[in-house]
Design brief:
The chain is mostly helical. Helix 3 (about 30-40) crosses helix 4 (about 55-65). The protein is built from four helices and two strands; from the N terminus they run αααβαβ. The longest helix has 13 residues, at about 55-65. It is an enzyme of class 1 (oxidoreductase). Keywords: Oxidoreductase. Its EC number is 1.8.4.8.
Amino acid sequence: MNIKQHQKMIHMSKFTPEQISEINDKLKTPEEVLQWGLENIHPKLALASSFGAEDVCVIHMLSKINPEARVFH
């Protein structure tokens, strides 16, 4: 990643650190975190997976919330 790409990513941030902290305090379960992400970031949200045991559990939760959610390997 070059410096211009890094700067672009920083400027694309939709949330301040304070907002992220507040959101984090409100979300208690993994399902709530996934639901929030799908409601606020989707379709830019995608799950990176190696298809290990933990990833399969997260993919299952994600697919129950939104079967159209993106997963990539």
